Amino acid sequence: ETGVTQTPRHLVMGMTNKKSLKCEQHLGHNAMYWYKQSAKKPLELMFVYNFKEQTENNSVPSRFSPECPNSSHLFLHLHTLQPEDSALYLCASSQDPRASGGNTIYFGEGSWLTVV
Amino acid sequence: KQEVTQIPAALSVPEGENLVLNCSFTDSAIYNLQWFRQDPGKGLTSLLLIQSSQREQTSGRLNASLDKSSGRSTLYIAASQPGDSATYLCAVNDDTSSSASKIIFGSGTRLSIRP
How many separate helices (H) and strands (E) can be counted in chain A? Predict the structure, then answer.
C-alpha cells in the first residue's frame, strides 16, 4: 500500500463509451500525475497537476480529459478512445516537486484499460 | 530533450550473484534520479532516490550511484535472490521545466534471477 489508490483496477470499454479513472492520495502531497504504460514502451507522462493547477500536458489527445478538483483527487475522463489507447494508466503523487531537489514519487497500482 | 536509456533490456543471472544495472541520461541538469521496481501487472515501487548533489544511496542489498557529469547511474544488487526478479526502471527528475517537475523514465531492465 503506497498511499495512492486507483479505481477501477480493470476497465473494458467500447470506442463510443465514456468512462473515468479515479486516483486518490492520502499522503498530503501537492503534485499528482497521470502516466501511460504501453507494452514495450517507456512510461509516458500525460499530465501533471501542482496545487490543483495543470502544469504539464504532454501533447495528449483531447479524448483524454483530466480533472483535479483538489490536491487529493485526480480523474482521467475517457471518451471515444481507440484500441491503441489500451494500456496501463498509472497515477502518482509527490510533495512539492520544486522543493529541496525534489521528492520521492509514489505510484498507484494502475488501471488496466482495454478498448474494444 | 531529456532521454533516459537503460541497458540491458533484459538480464538473467543465477541466484547469489552480484549484478549491476545501468542507466544513462542525456541532460545532466537534473533534480534527482530514482530507481523503481515494477512487478508484472503492478504499479511502481520506489527503491532509491539520489539527489543531484549526492553520489550514491544505499538500502539493504541495493546501492545506487550517480555521476551527473557523465550522465550515468548504476544500481548494484548484492547477493541476488529469486524475489528480486522484476523490471527495474530508472527515472530522472528533469530540471528544465519552468513549472512542476517532469519525471522521465527509461524503458527498464527486466531482471530474472534463476534459482
Answer: 0, 11
Question: Are residues B100 and A55, on separate chains, in Cβ contact within 8 Å?
Answer: yes
Pairs of CB atoms within 8 A across A/B? 77
Count the neighbouring beta carbons within 10 Å of the beta carbon of residue A30: 19
Q: How far apart are CA A7 and CA B57, in angstroms?
A: 33
pLDDT band at B96 (very low <50, low <70, confident <90, very high): low
Characterize the bridge pairing of strands A53-57 and A44-50: antiparallel
Hey, is A43 helix, strand or coil? coil
Determine contact: B107 vs chain A, CB below 8 A: yes
- Predicted local confidence at residue B34, as pLDDT: 92
CA B51 to chain centre: 13
Cβ within 8 Å of residue B30, ≥6 positions away: B2, B52, B68, B92, B93, B94, B95
Are residues A101 and B32, on separate chains, in Cβ contact within 8 Å?
yes
pLDDT at A100: 47
B25-51 confidence digits (pLDDT tens)? 999 988 889 999 999 888 899 999 998
Closest Cα to residue B61, out of B93, B37, B25, B30?
A: B37
Taking the alpha carbons of A104, B37, A93, A98 in that order, is the dihedral positive or negative?
positive
